[in-house]
Design a protein that fits this description.
- This protein has 1267 residues and is mainly beta.
- 7% of the residues lie in helices and 52% in strands.
- Keywords: Nucleus.
- Residues 12-394 form the RSE1/DDB1/CPSF1 first beta-propeller domain.
């Protein structure tokens, strides 16, 4: 069974707001597609408080204020599985930790109503007493609140407006709730009107507060209008010269054309006059005289269609408006952003009416929230969300235009604005009437916006490839992300990030390194010992930019042979206590060095800055042996000698080394057992001695744990491992926990072994036995181990072909790859210049830096600005990315957009542009394919395009282009062949030396065709148009056609078959036999797939437009084949791409039970993984998920089974439940559930989960480690 889990949660912002969730603290709440994040506003910035996962798609977020306090509640509107309102309250526990709590849910579902066409939103009156929800056509849901608590059930109020584009609650008097509505009427005209809500009569009668008016009908189809309510304002000017400085409040209409229009509320007197007219008209229409009634109706229609001039207006010079927010409490200033990130301030000015002041360029905003002190939060879907500060004077680029303003838009410089002292008056050539109604666009200089902080966003992900860029074996994802002015390629990988701080060059062939201190109890390292296969080097750490190689005559280290171990040791002192001799250890400047022949004690002379040998040391050659392995701690020195002898030494009086005990090892099969590695690191780091040591052997490939607990038990065997796959060459005993007591909850002793075949083996050391064996692959060279500290926690740095960090988290040992190549050895270092760092030895350098973020996804951006990447392919031979881009130049709203498309070739290491190809003006790249080649010079790219023609509803023409790239001294990128096709080339794949293309020509006909050169194999086709190449002409010839679908947009190769995704229908399997296409099997259900990918066996996984995942299996019965749907699951996100593979390194020992198979990428920035779980385990996990779904209820009372039930265009069906998939993220909640026995028992005997608690923990911890 398949398991769905999340690598990266959705990062696209839906909405944001500021309110007080507690009495004395302001908060910023950010809504993403399925999650709320709460930040408190502190003097130091935004402080994360808590988050809450919502089971459903968040559509809107509002605050419910209270009259009696500053505290507000939250109101979340979701649209799956059914429309719901979820009130949320922030609560603090005894320790001050915050969490969002849902006490109830407000169900808005109406089985027979039609979902709203354009606006699904909730609006809350400023008093917090009424919330109005638009989620169905022609019907409003009204909910009443008192002191932030709901009173009564939702009320249904019908309205005649069916195609509502925007709506808002106006600022009115007490107990009056007036809606302003912008909609298309029955004649397709854009109309602004208002309605008074009567909660007793459940009616929405026409209001006289804001008179109805017809607006311009030339509204761009892709523009979303906004209605901005404005508070009443009374000018404090005494002379009263400006007639438009005071107003009664009203609404600003934004996004309807290229002007911002302010319509004022009607005065009480005008309202009474209008009400009188309405009463008289109503009386006439209800009279018995048909002629009089008809005349009254005509008169009323004329009144409704009458155009009313706005009180004030101002030109909007930029693109469609996407977000706005008030910038003060008086309703005098508003921040407005457009789709290309251009930010401006709309201000009501006493002297000039409406002023539009450009501020600068940011990410494309979908949400703006003013916080305080000119600080603004910008939430984005297409770029990074940002924390901004708006300055009163230019912040940067003081001589450049703040924002470009079209020449035909009249603007005025700030110094020419009237009304200020010393400023000039307006141009007298303007007509008085226009001067009064029109506002001013200010022509500014410099950027007024400063980015204080950015929040990573990888949405929307349109396409992705997974490649190993540096040959480290750790794959990375290159994703086409962003949009508008924030196009980018995102380089995504899991694992830790090494932040390099310094590089020491010219030190080659280092095999091991040890930092040492001047004194044992010092915390700063002063010297560095490095060894090669032939010599030992000593360096003095003199500063950040100074490392001195010490002359051998200046120190007493053995330098003419390699060093096996070295470290600081304390001096042993003895005292008399009641007739007993008591030994203790005191601070010293002693250093112990172990070479292949000798053990030497050296003392550091601080006055001279030299190291001097002391004592006689210990010589292995006197026993006729050599030292083959060594490990030391503060008081114990363990040596592995040739001939299979292990010897234990320590430091006696007068710096003399004394021998405590030795043991010879042998085996009946192998005879004398040579020692390969030893370790004596204490599990309790507060002690200066170890109670056990580890030793590994040649031949048997075993690890033995020996006792050091007492003199009588020295070097006796405690336990022994089974034979390992290969020889252990590095051994380490390590406690990953913070507890030093073996009985402590955070005491996790482990035995780690680095093998010569590039694998790392770990055991937990519990109950005097080696348990929980895990194996990790780190390449194919011997693995070296070193202790380190990562993010303040103890960790192990492992270096092989690939570098990795092992750490303890969530009750499990985790491995996190580190993006470092050729790291031979690592060691912790803490010098005055580089505190708490890691030093790494490579083949030719030493690097110093920090490892950060072991449990995070590392994301880097290659910014492309207006070039929005849409398709990407990687050519491994050429080491080149082919990226299809679309560039839309910023235009003024309502004006034609200029869109261009291009293909860019980027170096896969530096991401520098190598070459590019610009499409024709009416052409767009829709698919990219790289063609493999054995000869680099003949490698090429295949590109599919679509050509747009005016008036076409479905494209009827496109091209398939072939390119050649010569990467030699004279690099060239050439278009070598062009083949016209009758439709859009949605997808290109390579199969059996041919190119298969999904081409759509109309709604009714589509075909898949295969093209090849009949005289050459495909790797010779490098020409785009008929040209000579090697004395031959290459062309693309259509050899087969398959036209049994409506609109083929997905195409995947699976062996000798093509998996075809029809955007209108479903899935088909087509066999490629030589040059013919044969339909094998087909699903006929209206599935509407948007992306598909092949699975192991004859299976397919896909996603459809209703945000569901599905799977099919090809079933064969005799000569007949059918597609059986064996999985359906609601994801809540639109999946744009599937990739086979995984980002994580799998524990080799666990591959059989759970194995990652696919990655998927969505439009909201979610990256997920599809894992395959074996049948035995999945049966238990299915029962566990069922039991958990009954006990764990989501916010708003949503049940898990209901949430994951597949959705369709009409919502969800009660008859169909999710099957074939398990929710991995939900199952992992079991690990933090207190009363797990309740989940295992179920409600009846048949629901009991028979797998033990510890086994379930192991499975779910394993699942956690894979995403």
């Amino acid at each position: 069974m398949r398991v769905v889990a999340t690598f990266h949660h959705p990062s696209s912002v839906v909405q944001s707001l500021k309110c007080n969730l507690t009495q004395d603290q302001e908060h910023l709440i950010v809504a993403k597609v399925n999650r709320l994040e709460v930040f408190s506003l502190r003097s130091s910035g935004l402080h994360f408080e808590c988050s809450l996962e919502i089971w459903g798609r968040i559509v809107s977020l509002k605050a419910i204020p209270s009259k009696d306090s500053k505290q507000s509640n939250l109101l979340v509107l979701t649209d799956h599985p059914d429309p719901k309102l979820i009130p949320l309250t922030l609560v603090l526990d005894d320790t001050g930790n915050a969490s969002l709590l849902s006490k109830e849910t407000i169900d808005l579902h109406d089985r027979y109503a039609r979902p709203a066409e354009f606006v699904t939103d909730v609006y809350v009156d400023p008093t917090g007493e009424v919330a109005v929800v638009s989620c169905y056509t022609g019907r409003l849901k009204v909910i009443e609140f008192k002191n932030r608590e709901r009173t009564g059930i939702p009320l249904d109020i019908s309205i005649p407006e069916l195609y509502i584009l925007a709506m808002t609650l106006l600022y009115t008097t007490k107990d009056l709730y007036t809606l302003s509505i912008l909609h298309y009427d029955h004649q397709g005209r854009l109309q602004l009107l208002s309605r008074d809500l009567d909660l007793r009569e459940l009616s929405a009668s026409p209001s006289t507060l804001l008179f109805s008016t017809i607006l311009s009908s030339n509204v761009p189809s892709d523009s979303t209008p906004f209605l901005i309510p404005v508070l009443p304002y009374v000018s404090h000017e005494e002379n009263g010269e400006n007639l438009y400085s005071s107003h009664l409040g009203g609404v600003v209409v934004a996004g309807c054309g290229n002007k911002l229009l302010f319509f004022e509320h009607a005065s009480q007197e005008r309202q009474e006059v209008r009400k009188g007219k309405q009463r008289r008209a109503s009386k006439r229409m209800s009279s018995g005289d048909p002629a009089e009634a008809a005349k009254a109706k005509v008169k009323e229609k004329e009144r409704e269609t009458k155009k009313i001039k706005p009180k004030m207006s101002v030109d909007w010079p930029w693109s469609e408006i996407t977000a706005w927010c008030p910038a003060d409490d008086q309703g005098r200033r508003f921040i407005i952003g457009d789709t290309f990130g251009r930010l401006a301030m709309l201000a009501f000015d006493d002297a000039n009416g409406l002023l539009l002041i450009p501020l600068g360029e940011t990410s494309s905003a979908v949400s703006l929230t003013y916080l305080s002190s000119q600080v603004l939060y910008l939430g984005s879907h297409f770029g990074e969300s940002q924390l901004l500060r708006i300055h009163q004077s230019p912040f940067t680029e003081r001589d450049a235009e703040t924002l470009p303003i079209p020449d035909h838009v009249k603007s005025i410089s700030a110094v020419s604005l009237p009304g200020g002292k010393g400023k000039e008056r307006l141009d007298d050539s303007l007509e008085p009437s226009k001067k009064e109604r029109g506002g001013q666009v200010v022509l500014g200089k410099g950027k007024f916006v400063e980015v204080l902080d950015s929040y990573e966003n990888i949405a929307p992900i349109m396409d992705a490839v997974m490649v190993d860029l540096d040959g480290s074996g750790q794959p990375q994802i290159i994703a086409c992300s962003g949009g508008r002015n924030s196009g980018a390629l995102k380089i995504i990988r899991t694992g830790a990030d090494f932040q390099e701080q310094a590089v020491i060059r010219g030190i080659e062939n280092v095999t091991d390194i040890w930092p040492i201190r001047s004194h044992y109890e010092d915390i700063i390292d002063s010297h560095l010992i490095a060894t090669t296969l032939h010599e030992t080097l000593v360096f003095s750490l003199d500063g950040r930019n100074a490392v001195t190689h010490m002359d051998p005559s200046d120190h007493g280290f053995i330098t003419r042979s390699p060093t096996l171990a070295v470290g600081n040791i304390p001096r042993r002192a003895t005292t008399q206590n009641g007739g007993r001799v008591v030994s203790s250890y005191v601070d010293s400047s002693l250093v112990l060095q172990v070479s292949q022949e000798k053990v030497r004690v050296i003392e550091h002379d601080a006055a001279l800055g030299l190291f001097v040998p002391v004592g006689d040391g210990w010589d292995a050659t006197k026993e006729g042996r050599t030292i083959v392995a060594a490990a030391i701690n503060s008081s114990q020195f363990v040596l592995g000698l040739s001939g299979g002898r292990l010897i234990l030494l320590n430091l006696g009086e007068n710096e003399q080394i004394q021998e405590l005990k030795y043991r010879d090892f042998g085996d009946r099969t192998y005879g004398m057992l040579e020692i390969s590695a030893v370790s004596c690191s204490p599990f309790d780091t507060t002690k200066k001695y170890a109670t056990c040591i580890g030793v590994s052997f040649w031949g048997t490939n075993r690890i033995a744990i020996l006792s050091l607990e007492s003199a009588t038990s020295y070097l006796t065997t405690i336990c022994e491992s089974d034979p390992l796959p290969s020889l252990p060459r590095s051994l380490l005993l390590h406690n990953f926990g913070q507890d030093h007591n073996p009985k402590g909850a955070d005491y996790h002793p482990h035995v780690l072994a680095g093998l010569v075949d590039g694998t790392l083996v770990s055991f937990s050391f519990r109950e005097k036995d080696l348990k929980d064996k895990k194996t990790f692959a780190l390449g194919d060279v011997p693995v070296a181990l070193a202790k380190s500290t990562v993010d303040g926690k103890p960790a192990i740095f492992a270096s092989g072909s690939r570098a990795s960090v092992l750490y303890w988290d969530r009750q499990r040992l985790h491995q996190s790859p580190v993006m470092i190549k050729d790291a031979v050895r690592g060691a912790s270092i803490s010098s005055s210049a580089f505190p708490s760092c890691l030093i790494l030895a490579t083949r030719s350098t030493l690097m110093i830096g920090n490892v950060r973020g072991v449990d995070k996804m590392q994301i880097n951006s290659v910014r492309m600005g207006l070039d929005n990447p849409r398709r990407i392919a990687h050519h491994p031979t050429l080491r080149v990315f082919a990226v299809a881009c679309i560039q839309t130049k910023p235009n003024r709203i309502g004006e034609p957009q200029e869109t261009t498309s291009s293909l860019k070739l980027l170096d896969d290491t530096t991401f520098n542009r190598i070459a590019s190809f610009a499409c024709e003006s009416d052409e767009e790249v829709t698919s990219v394919l790289t063609l493999s080649s054995s000869d680099v010079s003949s490698a090429r790219f295949c590109v599919g395009t679509v050509q747009f023609k005016p008036g076409e509803t479905e494209p009827s023409s496109g091209r398939i282009l072939l390119f050649s790239l010569n990467t030699g001294p004279e690099s060239s990128f050439q278009l070598v062949s062009s083949t016209p096709v009758s439709g859009c080339v949605y997808q290109l794949v390579s199969i059996q030396g041919m190119i298969a293309a999904a081409v759509n020509t109309s709604v009714r006909t589509a075909y898949v065709f295969i093209a090849f050169d009949p005289n050459m194999t495909i790797h010779k086709v490098i020409l785009f148009k008929p040209e000579k190449l090697n004395n031959s002409t290459v062309v693309l010839t259509k050899v087969s056609e398959w036209n049994h679908n409506y609109s083929v947009t997905g195409l995947v190769v699976h062996g000798c078959m093509l998996i075809v995704g029809d955007a209108i229908s479903s899935i088909s399997f087509v066999k490629v036999d030589d040059t013919t296409l044969e339909s094998i099997a087909r699903d006929y259900s209206p599935l509407w797939p948007v992306s598909v990918e092949a699975m192991d066996g004859d299976g397919v996984i896909g996603a459809n437009s209703d945000c569901n995942l599905f799977t099919f299996a090809l079933q064969r019965s005799g000569h007949r084949s059918t597609l059986e749907r064996n999985g359906s699951y609601y994801l809540g996100d639109m999946v744009n791409k599937f990739l086979r593979g995984s980002l994580t390194n799998i524990d080799i020992s666990e591959r059989k039970s759970i194995e990652p198979k696919h990655l998927f990428f969505t439009s909201t920035g979610r990256i997920g993984v599809i894992l395959e779980m074996n049948d035995k385990i999945s049966l238990h996990m299915t029962g566990l998920q069922r039991n958990m779904g009954k006990r764990i209820i989501g916010p708003g009372g949503v049940h898990h089974a209901t949430f994951r039930a597949p959705a369709n265009s009409k919502g969800h069906s009660d008859a169909e439940a999710a099957f074939g998939f398990l929710d991995g993220d939900f199952l992992e909640q079991y690990l933090g559930y207190a009363d797990y026995t309740d989940l295992l028992q179920g409600d009846m005997d048949a629901e009991q989960v028979t797998m033990s608690h510890s086994q379930i923990q192991d499975v779910l911890e394993q699942l956690q480690s894979l995403h």
